[in-house]
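Input sequence (293 aa), recorded before submission:
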Amino acid sequence: MTTPVRTALPVRRTALPVLRTGCRRGLVELRQSFTNGADLVSHFLWPVLMLVVLFFLRDREYGSSGFPLGTLALPSILGMNVAMGMVSMSQVLTADREDGTLLRARATPHGVRGYLVGKVVSVGGGLLADLAILLVPGLLLIDGLGVDGAAAWLTLAWVLVLGMLATLPIGAVLGAVFTSTRAQGLVQLPVLGMIGISGIFYPVTALPEWVQWLAQLTPVYWLGLGMRSALLPESAVGLELGESWRQVEAVGVLGVWAVVGLLVAPRVLRGMARRESGSAVAARRARALSRPG
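Predicted structure, token format:
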């Protein structure tokens, strides 16, 4: 009599150590980012600058809507910050590949997967901290927000989680594609382009129709819309396309981006890790040292 083969147990045994190791590594890196002076400044600099801009926009109304620009912009800026996690993730991965960190991770069992989990935890945790630094004072400084119940906070939570799942894997793919930290400047161009047409700083309904359709293909637009649906009063929905928050569509589009990213990112990272070698790391270091100033 043969014993039935169980396939779930080895997968579970593999997945749990990877998750534990990755989460532990990510939490250590996150804690270090709040004890290092330069990293600590970077956590506070952008939120403080945005709060200053929002403070001066608090009394300026958008057209005849009666809504201050600061009120409309705060939720959108939160969505933009989540989307910028793509850039942060790609920069981290490129830097770690250039200095040999990824090569060392490959030398350990399940090291690449644990490394990726750790980066998601550290970058995602840093994003949440930055959002809190912006949101908490923003709620006190900006009038007209509609955070008045558990439903608003629940919406905010699922938009954040789904938004990070939709954008961080894209950042991992971009980090695998670009071979140097200098080339990372190219990553910011398409991201800034998406932000420019996404209605973050100005309602998308004021843009040409073809730009509106293009914006709706990006995760940035839906992140901003989801944040606005959570933080703005119901009367502000008249400024949106179709005069609707379209939360079902937001879940669908962000979900598609998340599924595609989670399927593609591990494959791209494994292929990149297989191509890593000590000689490749040494060559990149030599090129970096030979660059002027």
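Checked by second reader. The radius of gyration is 21 Å.
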